[in-house]
Amino acid sequence: MIGVRRARLADLDALLDLEHAAFGTGAWSRQAIAAEFLELGSTREIVVADHDVDVSVVHGYAVGRYVADTADVNRLVVGASRRRRGVGSQLLTALVVEAQQRGCERMLLEVAAANISAIGLYAAHGFETIDRRPRYYNGVGDAVVMQRRLGHD
Fold first, then answer.
1. All domains of the chain, ordered by start, with CATH?
2. What is the DSSP letter of 59?
């Protein structure tokens, strides 16, 4: 069974592998991912979806950033073999719950306009399109900005 937990520095290589598989030349560097770990617990949360049998196998990860009343989904990556199997939903839910616990009122994200499946995932979780940024990705691909208002149950 796949579960979600807080990332550990020992996961860095697995996160880097997922990053390169998903984004190629647009992937975050080892240093960029490692820098996210420096803010864990204060302004950042990194969660991983793993399948812990004998050895932990990371199938996806997400990075949330929390500042004042706003949370941002900075990254959400799921390995190709686990897409469309609920892993992205688990990771996104973990970031939303963390944002609510921190008292955030809204959550924002940017996604490539061409990434229809990701836009569908976010919409299914209550995110709405609030803006579009033309030629945002390398001067070519548009970005869609989405927002979800967070309730505090």
1. 3-149 (3.40.630.30)
2. E
